[in-house]
Amino acid sequence: MIYSVVPKALADELYPKLVKHYENDENVTVIVDRREFDRRARSGRSSAASAEQPQRRVVRDRRRARVPGDLPPLARADA
């Protein structure tokens, strides 16, 4: 399935043309982008989240902890 997303500002001009162009193709759907702002953008946060302090993403080191101590010396293979 392919979605052809038309920006809201160009919807009046492009949407009818694209729908007509892809009317025989079942794999293409033309849609109009209705989003008001980008949720991931820092400036697009809702007023509830930015009223106090914006929440910051916490990056944790999730790797397994290293075993404490030193490794024993390697055995020598004398030929």
How many strands, which pairing sense, and closed or not: the largest β-sheet?
2 strands, parallel
> Any low-confidence stretches, pLDDT <50, length ≥5?
none
Fraction of residues in helix: 10-25%
Give the overall pLDDT as a whole number: 82
Question: What's the structural blueprint in terms of helices and strands?
Answer:
Elements: E1 2-6, H1 11-21, E2 28-32, H2 47-50
Parallel strand pairs: 1-2
Task: Give your account of this protein's structure.
The chain has about 80 residues and is of the alpha+beta class. About 20% of the residues lie in helices and about 15% in strands. It contains two helices and two strands, in the order βαβα. The protein has a two-stranded parallel sheet. Strand 1, helix 1 and strand 2 form a beta-alpha-beta unit. It starts with a strand and ends in a 29-residue tail after the last helix. The mean pLDDT is about 80.
Q: Outline of this structure?
A:
With 79 residues, the protein is an alpha+beta fold. The protein is 19% helix and 13% strand. It has a two-stranded parallel sheet with strand order 1-2.
Key words describing this protein structure:
79 residues; two-stranded parallel ribbon; 2 strands; alpha+beta
